[in-house]
Hints:
Layout: E1 3-8, E2 14-17, E3 24-26, H1 53-62, E4 66-69, E5 93-95, E6 100-102, H2 108-118, E7 121-126, H3 133-144, H4 150-157, E8 168-171, H5 186-203, E9 208-211, H6 224-233, E10 239-246, H7 253-257, H8 259-280, E11 288-296, H9 299-303, E12 312-313, H10 324-339, E13 344-350, E14 359-361, E15 367-369, H11 373-382, E16 386-388, E17 392-393, E18 396-399, E19 403-406, E20 408-414, E21 421-427, E22 434-439, E23 448-455, E24 481-483, E25 486-491, E26 495-502
Parallel strand pairs: 1-22, 3-4, 3-13, 4-7, 6-12, 7-8, 8-9, 9-10, 10-11, 11-13
Antiparallel strand pairs: 1-17, 2-16, 5-6, 14-15, 16-20, 18-19, 20-21, 21-26, 22-25, 23-26, 24-25
Helix pairs in contact: 3-4, 3-5, 5-6, 6-8, 8-10, 10-11
Bound molecules: alpha-L-arabinofuranose.
Amino acid sequence: xxxxxxxxxxxxxxxxxxxxxxxxxxxxxxxxxxxxxxxxxxxxxxxxxxxxxxxxxxxxxxxxxxxxxxxxxxxxxxxxxxxxxxxxxxxxxxxxxxxxxxxxxxxxxxxxxxxxxxxxxxxxxxxxxxxxxxxxxxxxxxxxxxxxxxxxxxxxxxxxxxxxxxxxxxxxxxxxxxxxxxxxxxxxxxxxxxxxxxxxxxxxxxxxxxxxxxxxxxxxxxxxxxxxxxxxxxxxxxxxxxxxxxxxxxxxxxxxxxxxxxxxxxxxxxxxxxxxxxxxxxxxxxxxxxxxxxxxxxxxxxxxxxxxxxxxxxxxxxxxxxxxxxxxxxxxxxxxxxxxxxxxxxxxxxxxxxxxxxxxxxxxxxxxxxxxxxxxxxxxxxxxxxxxxxxxxxxxxxxxxxxxxxxxxxxxxxxxxxxxxxxxxxxxxxxxxxxxxxxxxxxxxxxxxxxxxxxxxxxxxxxxxxxxxxxxxxxxxxxxxxxxxxxxxxxxxxxxxxxxxxx
Length: 503
Ligand code: AHR
C-alpha cells in the first residue's frame, strides 16, 4: 500500500532569496578534471583554445554558476606563476597531493578564458599550505589589478587586457587535515588567514573572503577549529567553508538516503559555532557558509586502493560511477542546501568532470551525463525567487547512522516576479510510493500544475556509461491531480521529483 504525506506551502514563509551561487562546482587540477576533462587539444571537439566543446555545452546545460579553482588539496602546493606565460617555458612539477605530474598547460589565464566561455564566475583558492601572504597578493594583483603594475602588466602582456574581477577568494584549503601540505593547527591557520585577508582587503576592500572550516564534520577538531579560526578572522572574512562527502556504507541504503539529515546538522552546528564567536565578540555581523565541497564520493573504496607508484600527467583518479540512488541523494543534498539559504550562500559540488563528477569523458572519445547530473541541472534551472520554509507531515523511519529520518524530504521555491512555484521532493522509502498532498491554499487559485520531472528506476544500481549514456534520465512523473486547493503527486520508491506550478 502507498504511504501518504502532506505539505503546506505559503508564499509568505520565505527563508531567503535563492542564491545562484548555490549551484557552484569545482575544477581542481586533479586526475582528469582539467586534462582530458575540460581541456584536451587534439580532441575532435576541441575548440581553438583546446577546450572540449562537448564538455562546455554540458557545463552550460548543468547550469553551474560559480567554479572553485584550482584546488582542493592541489592548491596547497601550487605555484600559480608556473601556469602563466609561453606554454613551452612552463615547468612540469610534481603534484604531491595526487601523486601526479602537473604540466601547467592550463593556468589562470586559460581557466579564465574557459570560465568566460562557460559563463561562470571563478572562486579562486590561494595556497596557504606551502605559501603565504605575498603569493596571495601576487596572484590577486595578476588577476584583479587593472594595469600599471608589474603583475597586472604581465597579465596584459600574456593576452588578457582586462582584469578578471574575481570576487570570491578562498584562504587555502582544508588546512585542518594532516594530509594537507602545510597542515596547521587552528590558531596557526587562523593567524595566517587573518594576515592574508587583511592584506587582500588592503588591495581590494570589497573582496568576499572564505576562511577554511573543517574538512568534514567527523574531524576530531570539528567545532573547535571553526571557533578558533573565526576568533582570529571574524571581522576580516565573509564565509567559513564546509566540506562533506557521503557514501553508502556496507549496503545500508536507508542511512545513505537520509544523509541530507547529516548535512542539515552539519550546517546548523557551524552556524551555531560562528554565531557564538560573534556573540563573544559582541559583533552584529553574521558569517555566511560556503559549502564549497559536497557530493557523493565512495571515499572508502579510494582509501583502500594501492598506493600510486608512477608519476603521470592526469592519471584517472576517483572516477566514481554514479547510480540511481546516488542521484536521489544528490537531489536531496541540494534540498538541504536550499533550505539553509539564509546562511549557506555559496556551494560547490565537487567536482565538475571525471573526478567524482556529474560529467564524464573519455580521452579522444565522448562526454556524457552521469545520473547525478540530472537533479542538479533541473534544480539549477527551476529554483528561482525565494526559498519557502516547508515542513512535511508524513511517515519516518529509523536509520543506523543518522537517527530518525523523514520518509519524504522537500523544499520549495517561489518566484514572486513570475508566480512560478516549484516543489523539490525525495521519497526515501525503498519499496512504497508516497502520495504527497500539496496544500496550495495560500496561493489562492493563482497556480496550476506545469510539469513534473522524476528520477527513479526499478534498478537502483543502474548507471550511465559511454555506451549507454541515457540509461538513467529524468522522466515526466504521473500527472499531478488537483482537487480544490490541494495538488497530489505520487513519488515512486527511492526517487527525486521536481514539480512546477505556474503562476
Ligand atoms: O574533491 C577532492 C578532494 O577532497 C579535494 O582536493 C580536497 O579538498 C577534499 O579532501
